[in-house]
Amino acid sequence: MTLSVYETKPAMASGYQQAVDEFMAKIIAKNPGEKEFHQAVKEVAETLIPFIEENPKYKTAKILERIAEPERVILFRVPWLDDKGEIQINKGYRIEMNSAIGPYKGGLRFHPTVNLGILKFLAFEQVFKNSLTTLPMGGGKGGSDFDPKGKSDNEVMRFCQSFMTELARHIGPDTDVPAGDIGVGGREIGYMFGQYKRLRNEFTGVLTGKGLDWGGSLIRPEATGYGQVYFAKEMLKMKGLDFKGKICLVSGSGNVAQYATQKATQLGGKVVTLSDSEGYIHDPSGITEEKLAYVMHLKNVKRGRIKEYCDKYPEAKFFADKRPWEVKCDIALPSATQNEIDGHDAEMLIANGCFLVSEGANMPSTPEAIEVYLKHKIMYGPGKAANAGGVATSGLEMSQNSMRLSWSREEVDERLHTIMINIHKNCVKFGTEPDGFINYVKGANIGGFVKVAEAMLAQGLV
Ligand code: NDP
To answer: What is the Cα–Cα distance from 341 to 323, expressed in whole angstroms?
Structure first.
């Protein structure tokens, strides 16, 4: 049996474990089989229930129970024709989780593993994350089990058009504003935006992550990875440290991983790994700006595999079917997908000297891994705080669209940086333990909860 994060804090556990167990039993009964959703709710419940018990107004109004139930779940068929003229059918989803503080906001994920439980976990996390950004955005998430890998541009376009033909009736700039996530980058956003515009005859900020010439924001592509590193920088600052000379592990090689690598390198860190679903590369000499430019071309244009890096740079080695956490490092920046660091990986990281984890991916650490971080009291920035820079900059894109103007690169980056500093401050405010240890999990959960809960109280039982 594995211990939960909550059980690692015996003083709290004695009083509240029963309330957490009862709450989770209801969640599991109501949402059978949705294991990632259970995992995400449990992590939040373990830190929030003690807080709610101390603030009975939230308990009486059943705020947490309501936050854990989506306001609306939309499920639809996505039929499309492949290049051979054969009919293909995928599932389409949009989870409209919570609109207490603004229109639903959150990405679309296209990946064969997508299912209802995964999207509900992502939508649930998004509610807290969006609140932490301080911007007026509710939480949502969506996507499809469509796999863009190995598809031609025309196939991706036909799929995106069919997907948007249904989704268009449910979204809008003041209702629900999707963005990208795994498998959804600039290309997919472009095709979906084009179809929405055609159907509605409206040029509005209905999606974020748009191209610069048609309503996009500078720094949006960079924002999640940059924000993740800015958050790590704030954590380091608390200990009088910085990125200079630190060995960093990055997982993934997509949007978040690329810009986390860039920013960590710019701040003086040395990133030595990248990965994809086939394995990881280890380049002990460091992934420089020039090597990163190669990765960006390989992944974003050629749509190749990360192992090809070793053909170009023979000083690097490829490890098939493995994840980078066995490499010695100071800082880990997980940026691929959920549950990519388990308890064993976490032990290995710490045994090898890792003292800081800042999550670019959503829920990349299993509950067992989080337990290890907290037991060893390393600096751990959970995704809902550390990767909030992406959605925050989407919020800035929405503001620019509403005002019909564009801010400069420096202006957006400065705002992003300030938002990450403020998210960090909020985590410190709500997460500092009596012994001075900063429990960022608790800080992010409570910090994100309060604003949404107060809005829900004010708006009555809706
Ligand atoms: P991309 O699609 O650009 O890249 C995803 C990367 O992760 C790829 O290298 C991919 O490898 C790898 N990956 C995906 N699924 C798996 C898997 N099951 N096992 C191993 N590797 C996998 O996505 P993003 O960079 O946008 O997203 C990465 C993470 O960051 C996700 O958790 C996402 O939810 C989160 N995130 C993203 C934001 C954004 O703004 N884009 C905002 C906040 C969080 P392969 O190519 O082989 O599939």
So the answer is: 8
| CB neighbour class for 19 (10 Å; exposed up to 12, middle 13-18, buried from 19) | middle
For residue 91, the one-letter residue type is K
272-312 tens-digit pLDDT: 999 999 999 999 999 999 999 999 999 999 999 999 999 99
Residue 2 pLDDT > 60: no
Residues with CB under 6 A from ligand 1: 113, 180-183, 185, 224, 252-257, 276-277, 335-337, 360-362, 387, 390
How far is the centre of ligand 1, averaged over its atoms, from the C-alpha of 147 (Å)? 13
Q: Are 249 and 273 in contact (CB under 8 A)?
A: yes
Residues 6+ apart with CB under 8 A from 111: 143, 145, 147, 182, 183
151 noted as active-site residue: no
Split at pLDDT 50, 70, 90, the class of 14 is low
Set 9, 129, 141, 451: catalytic member: 141
Minimal-distance CA residue to ligand 1 atom 32 = 361
Tokens matching residue 299:
């992944």
